[in-house]
Amino acid sequence: MSDDAESEASSPLQSIIRGAGANMSGMLTMRGLGFVTTYLLTTGLGPTLYGLYSFGKVLINICETIANFGTDQSIIRFVPDLDDDSTAQNRVIGLSILTSIVGASVLAVALYFAAPLIADYTDKQAGLVRVLQLFAITLPITTVLGCIASVFRSQEQAGLQVISNGISSYAFRIVTLSGAIALGATLFNVVVAEVIAALLTITFATWLFVRMTDFSPSLSGSRPSLKRFYNYSIPLTMSDTGRLIQNRVDILMVGFFLPGSAIGIYNLSTILAQLITLPSNGLNTIYPPIAAKMYGNGNIEELDALFTQVNRWSFTFSLLAAVGLVFYSSELLSIFGSGFSSGAAVLSLFVISFFANAATGPTGYTLMMTDHQYLMLTNRWGAGIVNAILNYFFITSFGLIGAASATLTVSIISNIVYVAEIWYTEGLFPYSLNFLKPVVAGVACAGALTGWGNVSPVSGIPLLIGGGIVGTAAFALVLLLLGIEPEDREFFEETVL
């Protein structure tokens, strides 16, 4: 990698860091609010009812992905590329919103009438019918929310993206869920509260969109053509559906084969494991539109420099979080009630699985932004099908731990495939011997946490806080002793000093 390439990448990298900073601040706030939301749900409903709630939520998430036909990703792809043509930008946004509303409305009606059949087939309580029917009402709302958030993301406004479809949603949910629990923590009351929160969120996000942007969504103009627009978006929605099947088919199959309490434990474990993705999600917030511009301008060497550095940062920060979550899996789960603490092994496996995703950084986005959407489609559906097959055999043989093991296996294999594909198609490879430094720091962090666990006079939350301080200090100290990379030092000096 040449010095010129590193220099050229510094300005985009600064944009990514600004976006990551805004995203991380927003995501930390959102995760804090999410923690409160999950705590309200788990303690108010208990493992079994929370399991039914989670099962319905996963079905809705899959429907949301199908409903927008990949138009949220089309906004990220086309709006930055058409910054010299506001009419074309408005057309992209208008097509995206219209497609999302129509698709979501059709799916909402289908889900409403299919709810009794789904409840009967999964042998779940009758309460699941009303859960699915009420959640169906939110489908058009959440798909439009996704479009609004993508507009902010396409403009490198990471803070507004997180506020519009993250922080505001959790804040409204906490208020409405608290009211529902005060009236009586029934499953019906909780889901009604979710519907009210969704209505409040879309109202706020629409106001934010009108206030903070100059866009006026419309269908006028001819750029991009309908063929080009849907040729990009439809493969992506199929790709995203495959990704959801890959990542969430496990909880659906747990719902089919295991009792409701198992679903609750399993879903809570996935929520906690997602803490690992905070660094990579932050770095990936602004990366896609920048990568698309670089690729469109033929700046492949600069893209390679940016890709490698962003991936190394994602790997480093995610590793620190992964070590902590594995060591304190049981203590974290017990915060949400004694009925969840038996999922420590499941949480540990999920931590490894999510770390495998974070360790490849923006590889998936790089494939998409370099116009390999059909390759991503094949990847995700292939992984989803394999995951479903493995989950069937592993769940029926090993129960809850089998589902997590199957998902972990597929996650590792699919991420290896992603790295091989971006290297083969574009000559981009995001790893080097420099990655050994954070690995050594991770080992030191694990040793420090082991020592802290042996001598700590406290337990519960104080143990977690103390462990976080000790582990982070050990990790950072070893990284400093091994030496900061020259490009990182140069970036820090240019940006901060």
UniProtKB/TrEMBL annotation:
What is the scientific name of the source organism?
Answer: Halococcus hamelinensis 100A6
The highest taxon in the source lineage is Archaea
InterPro entries, per database record: Poly_Biosynth_Transport, Polysacc_synth
Name the membrane topology term. Multi-pass membrane protein
- Which keywords does the record carry? Cell membrane, Membrane, Transmembrane, Transmembrane helix
Q: Which Pfam families match?
A: Polysacc_synt
Can you tell me where the transmembrane regions are? 33-53, 92-119, 131-152, 187-210, 251-273, 310-329, 335-356, 377-395, 401-423, 461-482
Q: Where in the cell is it found?
A: Cell membrane
Primary residence: membrane
One Gene Ontology cellular component:
plasma membrane
| Name of the protein in question | Transport protein 56 (Polysaccharide biosynthesis transport protein)
Q: Give yes or no: UniProt keyword Cell membrane.
A: yes
